[in-house]
Design a protein that fits this description.
- It contains 32 helices and 26 strands.
- By secondary structure, it is an alpha+beta fold.
- The strands form 4 sheets. Strands 10, 11, 14, 15, 16, 17, 18, 19 and 20 form a 9-stranded mixed β-sheet that branches. Strands 8-26-25-24-9-21-23-22 form an 8-stranded mixed β-sheet, sandwiched between helices.
- Strand 25, helix 24 and strand 26 form a beta-alpha-beta unit.
- The longest helix is centred in the last third of the chain and has 41 residues.
Amino acid sequence: MREYYRLSADETIKDLGTSPGGLSAEEARRRLEKHGPNELEEKKRTSPLLMFLSQFTDFMILVLIAAAVISGIIGELVDSAAILVILLLNAVIGFVQEHRADKAMAALKKMALPESLVVRDGNIARLKETFLVPGDIVVLEAGAIVPADVRLTESFNLQVDEAALTGESVPVEKETGPLNGGLAIADRKNMAYKGTVITYGRGRAVVTGTGMDTELGKIAALLQGEPEQKTPLQKKLTVFGKRLALAVLAICAFIFVIGILRGEPPLLMLLTAVSLAVAAIPEALPAVITISLALGARKMVRQNALIRKLPAVETLGAVTYICSDKTGTLTQNRMTVEKLFFDGANLDLGQAQNLAGAKVIFQAMALNNDSFRDAEGRAAGDPTETALLEAAAANGIEKGAVEKECPRVAEIPFDSERKCMSTFHKEPDGTGGIIQYTKGAVDSLLGKSENVWTSEGLKILDPAEMERANQAMSAGGLRVLCVAMRKWESLPDSLDPASVESGLTILGLVGMMDPPRPEIPDAIRMCKTAGIRPVMITGDHPVTARAIAERIGLMDRAGAVITGAELDRMSLEAFEAAVEEVTVYARVVPEQKIKIVQALQDKGHIVAMTGDGINDAPALKRADIGIAMGITGTDVSKESSHMILLDDNFASIVRAVREGRKIYDNIRKFIKYLLTTNSAEIWVLFVPPLLGYPLPLLPIQILWVNLVTDSLPALALSVEPAEENIMQRPPRDPRESVFAFGLGRHVIWVGFVMALIVIYLQVWSLSHSISHWQTLVFTTLCFAQLSHVLAIRSERESLFRQGVFSNKPLLGAVSLAFALQMLIVYVPVFNRVFKTDPLTPGEILSCLALSSIIFIAVEIEKFFRRRSK
């Protein structure tokens, strides 16, 4: 590879066939085809064919295939074919589940691709990093991650943290001149490498290597791809599944031995034992959980919350604290003029419009202003000045129009010592007179002013009155500016600030604020109802922080605001004692967020923390849910986060928490349904042989139950709408078992009752010499499971209150399962395959009546649950 650090910047640009204006779009497309996308190669994804074939690698499935083959050899061709068909259908369902999860995860990764500023066709554009090619000119800024290997062409105090590549802990200060050959990566100060972090300054660079041709790519080629990490819930259920599998295998072995001792055919008992094992072991649980989490994460994207790490979906439901930045997240990140002090009165902006003499203050706000309207008519520039521009426009003074009448002829820019800015404009009357407008801090202009403008003419300035008005506005959290003017017969010979910024006439005071987003008060109320404590963290003045907090309902007047200085003086132990009482932190620097997170976590809380800057990254990593800002956030903060807020809006966090709770609820419902039906099947096959009765179900019937009445309705539970009280209950304890709140008890007692009904029917049918008793038992078990899935759609609410049609996919799955069961009962060809007989209408009604006992029993359980709450 060419050692570009030895060439000058111009030689590098020439060698790569580009220019400072960047590549053309057509040339970039050609190079992308040649070099490929700018991404590290991942381990090869499993092809759909191999994914499908892997559905047959489970030990139990292989045993069933062998049993089907043996059945065919000994002449039981119908049984053999039926088992193989059901196994094929089971594999198709498993493949669809896994393929959907795989596609959902791939789509999420694609959404999370970072972007870079790239010069193409002479214009700066934001482009996904994967489309970068050698020869591209990229713009580098503090907080960004270097998108490819680049040779620097411009550097303005540029510093890069290369620890990830070189191990060097101190950021490297970059330069642009050529260097001698034979240098190690850490010494190539005119280069920057993919994956390193810009900590300070800015610059431009030309891309020299992309994808696997980067230094990072060389390292990646030496490493094996790490497997996708499972979520905590998946890990718990994997352990549970292994234990359950051992227990089921023991029961299956027992059933096999009992059957042999009773003289049953060995092949029949082998098929029965293996079929039961396949039906009873919930091997699909981890896959379905992945699907639920991945699809939930995709839905969150539509609600402006991009999940970067899948476990975050699960953790969201347990969040107890949301620590949010103020600017842009709770507020609109847009300064707005809210109050005026004019003519001796505090006024809302609209009230001043019709006042005599008020035009002059709006004219001053428009002309003493460097902001402008862009091509689309939007105000652009400094936020304070755009607020003044919009306020003037709202009161009939457009800068563009008034500037034609009163063009600017001179100015004295703002500086931090004077705390003001002055502009000089021609008077519109043609006399050659000049009008000076000055705006700045109240304390700065009071001492430079003599008069005050009123609707009745000039009056002597009363500084005490102005100071009272200033304090009243500031107490309301407003940022206050003073606007003044002075008239000249002609432009002063000297624009010395000390001489011209004196003898001013104050026009009035302007109070501005970054207003809260209108949806925030409702989101705050929802948080509090859901047992979640919202906390504001801001670098603003305590008075401003309090005003916003009171306006959005975060705190009342009695609430305390703690400042960063106070936080620094407190030990961690002292802070932990007080942290649960604090709702607003003001004048806080990003580094102090870690102390807040740590204190809350030490008190047992699950903390979501927002951030957008480089210094926010450690706190985002430390938080249980680190939330980066999608609009204002740096690449570093995004890479450190679990979730990216695409609209920088606090309300989107609350919506994501609600979605996280819903997903966890639906996973519990899926587990409840699957384990209850599995436990019923175990009881049904385990108890009758012990009582001296024949096996109630044939292997083919067990597999059918597992395929149709278990799988289809269970999958439909994953799209169950959120329950009404989902945000009126406290967050779940992340340490709690998935079987908490009676789920484990439900699995045991409902499974037992379901089995009891079926076993009773078997005993009754045999005692009355009903020849097709097995069809009755088989059908009743299927209907009981469908009855159960309709009853468990809610932990507390009745199905009739929820509405039968509120989950149409589930209704469709139940209807399809019912129709399929009717097919194998009444269609002759299926009668031969499944060893069933047609039932009379009365017998079908009896099956429905007996199975509805499960629905009624679960509804009664929910009734008492509602009463107990």
